[in-house]
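User: Second chain of the day. Same drill as before.
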Amino acid sequence: MKRALLAVSFGTSYRETLEKTIGRIEADLAAALPERDVFRAFTSAMVCRKLALRDGVHVDSPAQALERLSAAGYTDVLIQPTHILNGDEYDKLLAQTQPWAGRFACLRVGKPLLTSAEDYRAAARALMAARPAPMEDEALVLMGHGSGHFANAAYALLEYTLHDLGWRRCFLGTVEGYPGLEEVLRRLSEHPEVRRVRLEPFLVVAGDHALHDMAGEEPDSWRSRLEEAGYPAGCVVRGLGEYPAIRALFVAHARAAESR
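Assistant: Same format as last time:
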Protein backbone atom coordinates (compact mmCIF):
# COMPACT_ATOMS: atom_id res chain seq x y z
CA MET A 1 0.00 0.00 0.00
CA LYS A 2 1.44 3.36 -1.04
CA ARG A 3 0.89 5.99 1.67
CA ALA A 4 1.00 9.76 1.25
CA LEU A 5 0.74 12.81 3.46
CA LEU A 6 -0.55 15.91 1.69
CA ALA A 7 0.35 19.10 3.58
CA VAL A 8 -2.16 21.77 2.55
CA SER A 9 -1.49 25.46 3.20
CA PHE A 10 -3.07 28.71 2.11
CA GLY A 11 0.30 29.43 0.52
CA THR A 12 2.65 32.37 0.12
CA SER A 13 4.58 33.97 -2.72
CA TYR A 14 7.40 35.04 -0.35
CA ARG A 15 9.97 32.34 -1.07
CA GLU A 16 12.22 32.93 1.95
CA THR A 17 9.44 32.79 4.51
CA LEU A 18 7.86 29.87 2.62
CA GLU A 19 10.81 27.65 3.48
CA LYS A 20 11.09 29.02 7.04
CA THR A 21 7.45 28.24 7.83
CA ILE A 22 5.48 25.96 5.51
CA GLY A 23 8.64 24.13 4.49
CA ARG A 24 9.59 23.52 8.12
CA ILE A 25 6.10 22.24 8.99
CA GLU A 26 6.30 19.84 6.03
CA ALA A 27 9.76 18.68 7.14
CA ASP A 28 8.51 18.00 10.68
CA LEU A 29 5.54 16.07 9.30
CA ALA A 30 7.88 13.99 7.13
CA ALA A 31 10.13 13.23 10.12
CA ALA A 32 7.19 12.27 12.33
CA LEU A 33 5.49 10.05 9.74
CA PRO A 34 8.39 8.55 7.76
CA GLU A 35 6.24 5.79 6.29
CA ARG A 36 4.40 8.42 4.22
CA ASP A 37 5.63 10.38 1.21
CA VAL A 38 4.97 14.10 1.80
CA PHE A 39 3.49 16.36 -0.86
CA ARG A 40 2.50 20.04 -0.95
CA ALA A 41 -0.71 21.81 -2.02
CA PHE A 42 -1.98 25.38 -1.64
CA THR A 43 -5.63 26.42 -1.35
CA SER A 44 -4.97 29.95 -2.66
CA ALA A 45 -5.38 30.00 -6.44
CA MET A 46 -4.01 33.57 -6.44
CA VAL A 47 -0.75 32.49 -4.79
CA CYS A 48 -0.42 29.51 -7.15
CA ARG A 49 -0.89 31.77 -10.20
CA LYS A 50 1.66 34.29 -8.90
CA LEU A 51 4.28 31.60 -8.30
CA ALA A 52 3.69 30.15 -11.76
CA LEU A 53 3.85 33.50 -13.60
CA ARG A 54 6.71 35.05 -11.61
CA ASP A 55 8.91 32.06 -10.82
CA GLY A 56 7.74 29.30 -13.13
CA VAL A 57 6.95 27.22 -10.03
CA HIS A 58 3.87 25.01 -10.05
CA VAL A 59 2.10 24.19 -6.77
CA ASP A 60 -0.92 21.92 -6.90
CA SER A 61 -4.34 22.77 -5.57
CA PRO A 62 -5.68 20.04 -3.25
CA ALA A 63 -7.76 18.59 -6.10
CA GLN A 64 -4.77 18.54 -8.45
CA ALA A 65 -2.62 16.90 -5.80
CA LEU A 66 -5.21 14.21 -5.15
CA GLU A 67 -5.47 13.53 -8.88
CA ARG A 68 -1.69 13.07 -9.05
CA LEU A 69 -1.64 10.81 -6.00
CA SER A 70 -4.42 8.66 -7.40
CA ALA A 71 -2.66 8.37 -10.75
CA ALA A 72 0.60 7.44 -8.99
CA GLY A 73 -1.09 4.55 -7.19
CA TYR A 74 -1.35 5.92 -3.67
CA THR A 75 -4.20 4.25 -1.79
CA ASP A 76 -3.83 5.74 1.71
CA VAL A 77 -3.78 9.54 1.88
CA LEU A 78 -3.61 11.67 5.02
CA ILE A 79 -4.25 15.40 4.50
CA GLN A 80 -2.91 17.78 7.15
CA PRO A 81 -3.77 21.48 6.78
CA THR A 82 -1.50 24.19 8.14
CA HIS A 83 -4.49 26.49 8.60
CA ILE A 84 -5.08 28.18 11.97
CA LEU A 85 -8.90 28.24 11.92
CA ASN A 86 -11.70 25.91 10.96
CA GLY A 87 -12.70 28.71 8.59
CA ASP A 88 -13.22 29.43 4.90
CA GLU A 89 -9.96 27.86 3.71
CA TYR A 90 -10.56 24.69 5.71
CA ASP A 91 -14.14 24.49 4.42
CA LYS A 92 -12.75 24.89 0.89
CA LEU A 93 -10.30 22.06 1.52
CA LEU A 94 -13.04 19.73 2.79
CA ALA A 95 -15.22 20.58 -0.23
CA GLN A 96 -12.37 19.85 -2.65
CA THR A 97 -11.55 16.61 -0.83
CA GLN A 98 -15.06 15.17 -0.58
CA PRO A 99 -15.37 13.99 -4.22
CA TRP A 100 -12.22 11.91 -3.74
CA ALA A 101 -13.50 9.94 -0.76
CA GLY A 102 -14.26 6.87 -2.88
CA ARG A 103 -11.07 7.02 -4.95
CA PHE A 104 -8.73 5.93 -2.14
CA ALA A 105 -8.89 2.97 0.21
CA CYS A 106 -8.28 5.44 3.04
CA LEU A 107 -8.56 9.24 2.96
CA ARG A 108 -8.38 11.24 6.19
CA VAL A 109 -8.15 14.98 6.93
CA GLY A 110 -6.45 16.41 10.02
CA LYS A 111 -7.66 19.43 11.98
CA PRO A 112 -6.42 23.05 11.87
CA LEU A 113 -4.33 24.50 14.69
CA LEU A 114 -7.23 25.80 16.80
CA THR A 115 -9.98 23.19 16.98
CA SER A 116 -10.55 21.73 20.47
CA ALA A 117 -10.42 23.50 23.82
CA GLU A 118 -7.15 21.71 24.52
CA ASP A 119 -5.77 23.07 21.23
CA TYR A 120 -6.21 26.61 22.54
CA ARG A 121 -4.39 25.78 25.77
CA ALA A 122 -1.62 24.01 23.86
CA ALA A 123 -1.25 26.88 21.37
CA ALA A 124 -1.23 29.45 24.17
CA ARG A 125 1.46 27.54 26.05
CA ALA A 126 3.49 27.21 22.84
CA LEU A 127 3.26 30.96 22.25
CA MET A 128 4.30 31.68 25.83
CA ALA A 129 7.24 29.27 25.67
CA ALA A 130 8.54 30.75 22.43
CA ARG A 131 8.82 34.39 23.52
CA PRO A 132 9.51 36.43 26.66
CA ALA A 133 6.55 37.51 28.78
CA PRO A 134 5.52 41.15 28.40
CA MET A 135 7.40 43.46 30.76
CA GLU A 136 5.52 45.46 33.42
CA ASP A 137 5.19 48.47 31.09
CA GLU A 138 4.72 46.45 27.89
CA ALA A 139 1.90 44.77 26.00
CA LEU A 140 2.22 42.01 23.43
CA VAL A 141 -0.10 42.56 20.45
CA LEU A 142 -0.61 39.66 18.06
CA MET A 143 -1.99 40.43 14.60
CA GLY A 144 -4.10 37.70 13.01
CA HIS A 145 -5.73 37.62 9.61
CA GLY A 146 -9.38 37.55 10.62
CA SER A 147 -12.36 36.19 8.74
CA GLY A 148 -16.04 36.74 8.03
CA HIS A 149 -16.50 33.06 8.93
CA PHE A 150 -17.92 32.24 12.38
CA ALA A 151 -14.58 30.60 13.17
CA ASN A 152 -13.25 34.14 13.64
CA ALA A 153 -14.34 33.76 17.30
CA ALA A 154 -11.16 31.71 17.76
CA TYR A 155 -9.08 34.87 18.19
CA ALA A 156 -11.06 36.05 21.21
CA LEU A 157 -10.99 32.55 22.71
CA LEU A 158 -7.22 32.35 22.36
CA GLU A 159 -6.83 35.78 23.98
CA TYR A 160 -9.00 34.65 26.90
CA THR A 161 -6.86 31.53 27.23
CA LEU A 162 -3.63 33.57 27.30
CA HIS A 163 -5.13 35.81 29.99
CA ASP A 164 -6.18 32.80 32.05
CA LEU A 165 -2.62 31.46 31.83
CA GLY A 166 -1.26 34.74 33.18
CA TRP A 167 -0.48 36.89 30.13
CA ARG A 168 -3.08 39.61 30.81
CA ARG A 169 -1.26 42.19 28.71
CA CYS A 170 -1.42 40.10 25.54
CA PHE A 171 -4.05 41.18 22.99
CA LEU A 172 -5.12 39.70 19.66
CA GLY A 173 -6.41 41.80 16.80
CA THR A 174 -7.12 40.98 13.18
CA VAL A 175 -6.70 42.66 9.81
CA GLU A 176 -10.02 41.47 8.37
CA GLY A 177 -12.17 40.49 11.34
CA TYR A 178 -13.11 41.29 14.93
CA PRO A 179 -11.42 42.41 17.09
CA GLY A 180 -9.53 44.87 14.94
CA LEU A 181 -6.87 47.43 15.71
CA GLU A 182 -9.46 49.86 17.14
CA GLU A 183 -10.47 47.29 19.75
CA VAL A 184 -6.81 46.61 20.55
CA LEU A 185 -6.20 50.33 21.07
CA ARG A 186 -9.19 50.51 23.40
CA ARG A 187 -7.91 47.60 25.46
CA LEU A 188 -4.47 49.17 25.67
CA SER A 189 -6.06 52.35 27.01
CA GLU A 190 -7.57 50.27 29.84
CA HIS A 191 -4.03 49.45 31.00
CA PRO A 192 -2.38 52.75 32.00
CA GLU A 193 0.75 50.88 33.03
CA VAL A 194 1.44 50.01 29.38
CA ARG A 195 3.95 52.38 27.78
CA ARG A 196 5.16 50.32 24.83
CA VAL A 197 4.08 47.47 22.59
CA ARG A 198 5.71 44.41 21.11
CA LEU A 199 3.96 43.62 17.83
CA GLU A 200 4.05 40.15 16.29
CA PRO A 201 2.06 38.28 13.60
CA PHE A 202 -0.32 35.50 14.58
CA LEU A 203 0.03 34.05 11.11
CA VAL A 204 1.63 30.80 9.95
CA VAL A 205 3.63 32.75 7.35
CA ALA A 206 5.11 36.21 7.90
CA GLY A 207 4.25 37.49 4.43
CA ASP A 208 2.45 40.51 3.06
CA HIS A 209 0.24 41.17 6.09
CA ALA A 210 3.16 40.97 8.51
CA LEU A 211 5.54 43.04 6.40
CA HIS A 212 3.11 45.75 5.35
CA ASP A 213 -0.13 45.78 7.38
CA MET A 214 1.71 45.14 10.64
CA ALA A 215 5.29 46.43 10.41
CA GLY A 216 5.17 48.70 7.36
CA GLU A 217 6.21 52.35 7.12
CA GLU A 218 2.80 53.35 5.77
CA PRO A 219 0.74 55.65 8.04
CA ASP A 220 -2.08 53.09 8.29
CA SER A 221 0.12 50.16 9.36
CA TRP A 222 -0.42 48.82 12.86
CA ARG A 223 3.04 49.95 13.91
CA SER A 224 2.41 53.49 12.69
CA ARG A 225 -1.06 53.63 14.26
CA LEU A 226 0.22 52.38 17.62
CA GLU A 227 3.07 54.86 17.64
CA GLU A 228 0.66 57.65 16.71
CA ALA A 229 -1.40 56.63 19.76
CA GLY A 230 1.68 56.98 21.95
CA TYR A 231 2.92 53.39 22.10
CA PRO A 232 6.44 52.83 20.74
CA ALA A 233 6.12 49.57 18.84
CA GLY A 234 8.86 47.03 18.29
CA CYS A 235 8.06 44.49 15.58
CA VAL A 236 9.03 40.83 15.44
CA VAL A 237 8.36 39.63 11.89
CA ARG A 238 8.31 35.89 12.43
CA GLY A 239 5.60 33.47 11.28
CA LEU A 240 4.14 30.82 13.58
CA GLY A 241 5.65 28.13 11.36
CA GLU A 242 9.11 29.19 12.57
CA TYR A 243 8.33 28.04 16.13
CA PRO A 244 9.02 24.32 16.80
CA ALA A 245 6.32 24.14 19.50
CA ILE A 246 3.67 25.37 17.05
CA ARG A 247 4.85 22.99 14.35
CA ALA A 248 4.57 20.17 16.89
CA LEU A 249 0.86 20.89 17.25
CA PHE A 250 0.29 20.38 13.52
CA VAL A 251 2.23 17.11 13.77
CA ALA A 252 0.05 16.05 16.70
CA HIS A 253 -3.08 16.72 14.62
CA ALA A 254 -1.70 14.63 11.76
CA ARG A 255 -0.98 11.74 14.12
CA ALA A 256 -4.47 12.05 15.62
CA ALA A 257 -6.01 11.90 12.14
CA GLU A 258 -3.95 8.83 11.28
CA SER A 259 -5.15 7.01 14.39
CA ARG A 260 -8.83 7.61 13.60
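The longest helix spans residues 244-259.

User: Great, on to the next one.
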